[in-house]
Amino acid sequence: MTAMPSAQRYVRLSGEEFRMRLREALDIYVAAMNYPPGTAEQRAPMWLTHALREGWRAVAALDDEERLVGIAYGYRGMPGQWWHEQVRRGVTDREGEQTANAWLGDYFELTEIHVRPGGQGRGTGEDLLRMLLDGVPDGRVLLSTPEGDSRAWKLYRRVGFGDVLRQYRFAGDPRPFAVLGRTLPLD
């Protein structure tokens, strides 16, 4: 007899709930991204600061024992934010200021979306993505993801994300990234 997969539910998280689950969320992030130990401690202050930004929202997938299976969050992208300025510089250098203004004038930054490795490949990422973006008032959504064939890439392509900037290297990270975007709302 095979075991039945555990039930899963999706919830929106308040800022307080996000803070209470931060350790759990960062553990998923480190595992999903295959980052070295110690990364969570480095990222925790940044994630807490993100939760204070305009338009911030978060969603989570919970198993039947209320453990975090997946997490996604983002906020309204604006000038002066580190990611915004990095992407603006890259798009402007490669495609020109007009293209940068078109993409970065009115967008939601999908900052993080991660599913515990053992739970990947079951639609959780897409469910989190759709729930997070449902009702976002911005005209576009942008995200960055490491270059390479992955489940994340397949998900983003499946829901209509296109290339904004490819093979980009963010300051402080030697890996090439892609910046992907699409109009909102999702279909």
TrEMBL record:
EC number(s) on file: 2.3.1.-
Q: Which PROSITE patterns match?
A: GNAT
**N-acetyltransferase domain: which residues?**
54-185
Q: Does the keyword Acyltransferase apply?
A: yes
Query: What is the uppermost EC class here?
Result: transferase
**Species:** Prauserella salsuginis
- Tell me if Acyltransferase is a UniProt keyword of this record: yes
Quote one Gene Ontology molecular function term. Answer: acyltransferase activity
Q: What is this protein called?
A: GNAT family N-acetyltransferase
Q: Which UniProt keywords apply?
A: Acyltransferase, Transferase
